[in-house]
Design goal:
Growth Hormone, Chain: A, two-stranded antiparallel sheet, cell inner membrane, transmembrane, mainly alpha, about 425 residues, membrane, 2 domains
């Protein structure tokens, strides 16, 4: 199936037609399910609130939850790295299993509520101070359940926002990115005033809010295909990988996104060591990239709808290649600030292209499963490999030159999405 044949905006075709078309192009895809569109007029506002609450929690989770585990639960750096690494491997297996379960539910809120509830339960248990072995298992589980929310949330955001809603998708996703910044910077300020337990309290409150807001979403009942068991749904999800364009999309974008790992793990340390900037300044410099991402999504998402998803992915790959190559030159603060603006390309354009490409390829009905396959089978292993390589390079004293390896990841992803773009051009689509 060529992306050039498909609409790339926020809306999609009739779900039944999408599934039938996907079935013709991907062996083993389930037929016969039909979705009932939501009737609530404020669904876009509600799902935007859900996204903002999740990313406000996620902004704290990525940067500060590891700090809390070390300071409050006695994890060493090695133990923490092991838990996160094993969780990445776990997502490869748990993701397809979760999506197959979700495809059998009649309420599209079910996977969001399940994963959010599991995350809340694990966080509450960790707060009770269990023995280290239990704490390690809980941290491992949290890393899987919390990351698992992303695929179903992004599918809901695409499904419930479109050209006729307020907010539209670009604004909704941009607000979610700003919520990520608020969680990242806000929790850092709270830690300075109240100590590291502010991390746990922030996560507990935002995840509780996430559960409440998800409950308030429209139920979106789905009439599922009759007689399709769990094993068939799992096989159907894995069969998506046999669609060539889908495989090119997820592995190409997965590599480009994985190229951010050296920056995520060691970026602020390298900036402080090289320039002598304060930790607070490094935090704001990091936030500048996410603000650039939000600005692009909120200000230009509608304009970007005129381009095919593969075109956006190529632009993102070129931006990533340029960003990491120049970062390897150990630039000063002024150039660093300019390079942070390239986050709008290396992450946002790649992300936007992937999300719209997946939705256009699979329709509303199958997008959550396709998103999970993307996260579990492409992004998770690519990030694990990039993280492992990043650690080796940092320990070997490569410093800023370690970004050259990330440029290699981005270049490999760029090749794959360029092949995807070329397949679309060859079938007569517009660039």
């Amino acid at each position: 199936m060529s992306l050039s044949r498909l609409h790339i905006g926020g809306s999609a075709c009739n779900a039944t037609d999408d599934i039938a078309d996907a079935t013709r192009h991907g062996s083993g895809v389930i037929r016969g399910a039909k979705s009932i569109p939501p009737t609530t007029g404020d669904a876009a506002l509600r799902v935007t609130l859900v996204a903002c609450l999740f990313y406000a929690a996620f902004g704290a989770f990525l940067q500060w939850f590891p700090v809390w585990l070390i300071d409050a639960r006695g994890f060493t750096g090695g133990q923490l790295g092991l838990a996160i690494a094993w969780a990445g491997i776990g997502r490869i297996f748990v993701g397809p299993l979760t999506s197959a379960w979700a495809e059998g539910r009649r309420d599209r809120r079910a996977p969001l509520l399940l994963l959010a509830a599991l995350t809340m339960a694990g966080l509450l248990a960790l707060g009770m101070g269990p023995a280290f072995g239990i704490s390690f298992a809980l941290a491992f589980g949290l890393e899987i359940s919390f990351w698992g929310i992303i695929a179903f949330l992004e599918a809901a955001l695409l499904r419930l926002t479109n050209a006729t809603t307020r907010p539209r998708y670009g604004v909704a996703r941009g607000l979610a990115s700003l919520a990520f910044v608020a969680g990242n910077i806000g929790v850092g300020i709270l830690i300075d005033h109240f100590g590291n337990w502010a991390v746990w309290v922030w996560l507990a409150l935002t995840i509780w809010g996430l559960i409440a807001a998800t409950t308030a979403l429209p139920a979106e009942p789905v009439r599922r295909a009759v007689g399709v068991n769990y094993s068939a749904r799992l096989s159907s999800g894995l069969a998506m990988l046999r669609v060539p364009d889908f495989a090119l999309l997820i592995f190409g974008c997965g590599l480009i996104q994985a190229a951010h790992q050296y920056y995520y793990i060691f970026g602020t340390k390298l900036w402080i060591a090289a320039t002598g900037m304060s930790s607070a300044m490094a935090g704001w410099l990091f936030a500048l990239g996410v603000i650039a991402e939000a600005g692009l999504l909120m200000g230009f998402a509608t304009w970007l709808e005129r381009y095919r998803p593969a075109t956006l992915m190529i632009a993102g790959g070129i931006g990533a290649l340029l960003r990491w190559t120049l970062m390897a030159q150990d630039p000063g603060i002024p150039l660093l600030a300019l390079l942070q603006l390239l986050h709008a390309a290396s992450f946002a354009l790649t992300f936007l292209g992937a999300m719209r490409g997946i939705q256009s390829m699979w329709g509303h009905q199958r997008t959550p499963t396709a998103q999970m396959m993307f996260m579990a089978l492409a992004t998770a292993p690519a990030q694990a490999l990039a993280s492992y390589a990043s650690g080796l390079l940092y320990e070997a004293g490569w410093g800023a030159r370690g970004y050259l390896a990330m440029a290699g990841f981005a270049g490999a992803g760029l090749v794959l999405v360029t092949v995807l773009w070329w397949r679309g051009r060859a079938s007569g689509g517009q660039a």
